[in-house]
Please model this.
Amino acid sequence: MEYKTEIIINKPRQEIIDAFENPSLLPLWQRGLKRSRPLSGKNGEVGSKRKLYITIEGQSIKMTETIIKKNLPEEWHGEYSSKGIESVQKNYFEDINENQTKWTSYSEFKFSGFMKVISKLLPEIFKKRSVLVQKDFKAFIEDGKSVKTN
Model:
């Protein structure tokens, strides 16, 4: 499964990148993220791994994030793996003007086991989640609204 999502954020690109890259801010805009911890590599650099503990729709998920490409402020790509799901997220940040940035995300998922069945029955839940993450980030960066208070 592959799809693209986009959002316009009313902030300069560098401000967006500073927040996007700050691991201490992740729980404020990543809905369901309970905690994360570094596993290996230099934090925030290509090849580094981080364990994410997420609750989505009442389900607890442990996911490993690996940074696979980092060419900021233009692009940041991550690979995610958990039971039954492998995904790649390619994020691009484009200046529209000095106070607006377009964030485009390309998502690719591969499923196995039970998640293969879920992906066939409810494929829209994955794209809806991606759109929600972008909207949550926009609300956080533009208005200071944390997903914990939404």
Observations:
- Strands lie at 2-9, 33-40, 49-56, 59-71, 75-82, 85-97, 100-111.
- The chain has four helices and seven strands.
